[in-house]
């Protein structure tokens, strides 16, 4: 009977339906992935944006907070000094410092004017010069002159205003007073009119609006702190802060795809990368409502709702994420604008990637499904169709592979076989018996082949061991432990005698308790001592044989060596940590010692500076009181004392300035070729009078060939310090010897005296900054001279040291290279600023 052709494949129908369902699932997963990616990315970007804007705002705030601190300190110090001055008359000091010019405006006298290092003053010609006003002007000028170099270290200038038409300024780059005229009205400036009690009844410090300074040609903002004394407005302290760099950073330093802007708390625009010209035309403060830009207004209004802590908010139209941080001081808002479209683009790209992977996985799943359906459905059904044809042709020996399956097709195939068996049971039984025998033989052959292959590839030996330690079977690489076939031998032949008892105990425990045992031991083999691990695993009992175990032997020599190396490395690491801890403690102790020395030095130098200053003021007051009654010789002695104290004060200030230059790397060295002997003679002649007063003889021994490359002024400074110290500590009628000789490529200079020796603990410390040796710094000395000498000598490439002579006296020795390196242009190395 001919077969009817199959019109529709069951596998194809199932494949089509399942493919459509899987595709729908993939689309839903893609949509869910897009939603998840978008919100996860949004949270990540918001967190990063919040941290970025917080750090950026905090960094920009430091400059403004420093200005607030400094103006408050200036105002407080002004009040303190006025209280200290009391009713003292400053008229003479006022007249000595200030004088009216041709236009009637009072400015600094030309002979004392120095705007680069001192404060300048402008007083309009119509201001009454009362004693109180003069006192405030002089006190304010002294304060700005003293504090100006510190307060303008990071700012343009510092200034003071008073209720009268006047202005004090410390601006090292320009003399502001020269631009003032008799018509100048300081109340036109916000820094003044907002300081008045009428405009500022709470007397609170304030920030001005942004303005353009015509003199400095820069955009600025000022911080002002009013100063009141006994309820009366006496002065105003302020500083001008340039914001040009802040505006440039805001425009240029931004995250990829974002832009920054700065607004005031009232919504005025301070900085914007594309509106710089409009902001300048508006005077530095632009009202965004005048731009008629709805998007910008939305950004600004949304950002101003954020509190003091940095945060990220989304505009109402969800077009932008705004990172908003507060710039403390002027209370501005730094806004980082991040378009939401960037997040959506990244999320779409991720979702697109998921969709593509889903499509690829759909194709792979359909191929796998087709393969599975073909094997599980199509092939069994095709097999049944062919079996039906053979039965129809009289062949009753039907064996279907699908008959052993546990599903419906298996049951169908099994029923078909039973039907065929009923037709030819006798022949079927014979064929079935022969087939089963063949299958069993093949299974045994396959199992034997697998066991042999497994035995060949096992790197470690595995033994089947009976309860009496006899090896029943062996697998893997047994040649390292046994010569020949190990079957029938005791397993303990693989172990050294010292561990055999332990092995027997482990075997007994494994056999009797059924628990796995483990042993670790070393054995001497042909290649040397090796470490082994024996694992003893009980086997299920069998009827034909007694208890058995599986004995696995592994070579763990490499593991043992690694453990030893790890222990050594751990011990070495502990030693390193201990050493570094000791170094850190030593560094901490040295830092603490240096800090204490610096504190002590500041206390000492304050006392030393105060002594000559008191002397100057005392002799000046005495001279002023007795100028009409005292004899000329007494007045001359007063002025001589003032000059001597002033020179002492100037020397200490010069030492402080030199040490400050050395620490900041700004000491200038101008190298040229000089004769060292001439420098020595010049310094000796300069100090001859000082030596004569103590009847000290200056002896010189100088070689003839004494030329070298050096800064003559700085070398003279070293010699002057060493020789003047030697004179101070020499006894009357003593001898100081200055010697110059060669130690190629160096010139060596020694200064010896026969005074008291230097304490042994001070021989090294006397050259350190802020450390004063015992009795080595006489009154009026800064204690920095020897530290400056060492810095100058080492800057030239030399060395300086001190030692005691035998008997009595001390010797200071320093070396200088005769030649300095030459730059490619032909100039001496170090010829410019140091």
From TrEMBL:
Pfam family for this entry, one: HATPase_c
Source organism superkingdom: Bacteria
Recorded topology in the membrane: Multi-pass membrane protein
Membrane-crossing residue ranges in chain numbering: 20-38
Keyword vocabulary terms for this entry: Kinase, Membrane, Phosphoprotein, Transferase, Transmembrane, Transmembrane helix, Two-component regulatory system
EC number of this enzyme: 2.7.13.3
Residue ranges constituting the HAMP domain according to the UniProt record: 375-428
Predominant place of localization: membrane
One Gene Ontology MF term: phosphorelay sensor kinase activity
Occurrences of domain Histidine kinase (ranges): 604-820
Protein name as annotated: histidine kinase
Organism: Silvimonas terrae
């Amino acid at each position: 009977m001919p077969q009817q052709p199959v019109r529709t494949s069951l596998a194809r129908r199932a494949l089509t339906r399942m493919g459509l369902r899987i595709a729908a699932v993939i689309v839903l997963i893609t949509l869910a992935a897009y939603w998840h990616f978008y919100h996860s990315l949004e949270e990540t970007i918001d967190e990063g944006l919040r941290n970025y804007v917080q750090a950026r705002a905090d960094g920009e705030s430091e400059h403004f907070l420093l200005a607030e601190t400094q103006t408050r300190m200036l105002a407080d110090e002004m009040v303190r000094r006025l209280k200290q001055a009391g009713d003292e008359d400053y008229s003479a000091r006022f007249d000595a410092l200030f004088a009216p010019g041709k236009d009637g405006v009072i400015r600094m006298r030309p002979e004392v004017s120095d705007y680069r290092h001192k404060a300048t003053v402008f007083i309009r010609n119509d201001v009454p010069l009362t004693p109180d006003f003069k006192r405030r002007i002089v006190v304010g000028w002294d304060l700005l002159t003293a504090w100006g170099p510190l307060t303008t270290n990071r700012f343009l200038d510092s200034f003071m205003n008073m209720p009268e038409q006047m202005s004090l300024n410390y601006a090292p780059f320009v003399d502001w007073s020269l631009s003032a005229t008799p018509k100048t009205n300081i109340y036109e400036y916000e820094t003044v009119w907002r300081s008045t009690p009428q405009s500022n009844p709470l007397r609170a410090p304030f920030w001005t609006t942004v303005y353009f300074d015509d003199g400095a040609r820069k955009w600025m903002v000022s911080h002002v702190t009013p100063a009141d004394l006994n309820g009366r407005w006496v002065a105003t302290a302020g500083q001008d802060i340039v914001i040009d760099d802040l505006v440039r950073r805001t425009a240029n330093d931004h995250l990829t795809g974002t832009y920054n802007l700065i607004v005031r708390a009232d919504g005025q625009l301070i900085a914007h990368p594309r509106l710089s010209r409009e902001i300048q035309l508006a005077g530095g403060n632009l009202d965004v409502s005048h731009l008629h830009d709805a998007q910008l207004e939305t950004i600004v209004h949304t950002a101003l709702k954020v509190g003091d802590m940095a945060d990220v908010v989304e505009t109402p139209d969800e077009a932008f994420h705004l990172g908003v941080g507060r710039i403390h001081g002027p209370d501005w808002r730094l806004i980082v604008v991040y378009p939401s479209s960037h997040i959506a683009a990244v999320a779409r790209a991720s979702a697109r990637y998921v969709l593509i992977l889903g499509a690829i996985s759909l194709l792979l799943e359909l191929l796998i499904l087709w393969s599975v359906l073909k094997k599980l459905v199509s092939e069994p059904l095709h097999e049944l169709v062919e079996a039906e044809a053979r039965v129809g042709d009289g062949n009753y020996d039907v064996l279907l592979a699908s008959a052993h399956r546990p599903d419906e097709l298996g049951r169908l195939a099994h029923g078909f076989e039973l039907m065929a068996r009923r037709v030819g049971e006798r022949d079927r039984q014979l064929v079935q018996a022969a087939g089963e025998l063949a299958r069993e033989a093949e299974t045994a052959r396959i199992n034997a082949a697998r066991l042999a292959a497994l035995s060949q590839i096992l790197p470690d030996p595995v033994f089947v061991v009976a309860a009496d330690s006899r090896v029943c079977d062996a697998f893997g690489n047994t040649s390292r432990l046994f010569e020949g076939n190990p079957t029938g031998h005791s397993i303990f032949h693989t172990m050294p005698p010292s561990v055999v008892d332990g092995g027997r105990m482990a075997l007994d425990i494994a056999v009797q308790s059924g628990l796995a045992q483990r042993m670790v031991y070393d054995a001497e083999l042909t290649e040397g001592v090796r470490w082994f691990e024996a694992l003893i695993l009980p086997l299920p009992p069998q009827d034909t044989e007694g208890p058995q175990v599986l004995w696995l032997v592994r070579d763990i020599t490499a593991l043992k060596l690694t453990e030893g190396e790890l222990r050594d490395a751990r011990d070495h690491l502990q030693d390193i940590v201990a050493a570094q801890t000791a170094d850190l403690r030593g560094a901490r102790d040295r830092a603490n010692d240096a800090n204490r020395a610096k504190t002590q030095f500041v206390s000492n130098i304050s006392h030393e500076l105060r002594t000559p200053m008191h002397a100057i003021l005392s002799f000046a007051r005495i001279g002023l009181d007795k100028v009409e009654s005292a004899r000329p010789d007494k007045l001359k002695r007063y002025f001589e004392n003032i000059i001597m104290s002033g020179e002492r004060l100037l020397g200490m200030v010069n030492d402080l300035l030199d040490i400050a230059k050395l620490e900041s790397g700004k000491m200038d060295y101008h190298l040229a070729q000089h004769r060292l002997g001439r420098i020595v003679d010049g310094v000796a002649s300069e100090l001859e009078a000082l030596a004569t007063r103590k009847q000290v003889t200056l002896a010189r021994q100088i070689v003839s060939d004494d030329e070298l490359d050096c800064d003559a002024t700085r070398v003279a400074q070293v010699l002057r310090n060493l020789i003047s110290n030697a004179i101070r500590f020499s006894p009357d009628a003593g001898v100081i010897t200055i010697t110059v000789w060669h130690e190629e490529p160096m010139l060596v200079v020694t200064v010896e005296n026969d005074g008291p020796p230097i304490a042994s603990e001070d021989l090294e410390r006397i050259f350190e900054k802020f450390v004063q040796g015992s009795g080595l710094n006489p009154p009026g000395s800064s204690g920095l001279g020897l530290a400056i000498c060492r810095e100058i000598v080492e800057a030239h490439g030399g060395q300086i040291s001190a030692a005691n002579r035998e008997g009595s006296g001390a010797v200071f020795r320093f070396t200088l290279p005769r030649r300095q390196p030459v730059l490619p242009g032909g100039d001496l190395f170090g010829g410019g600023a140091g």
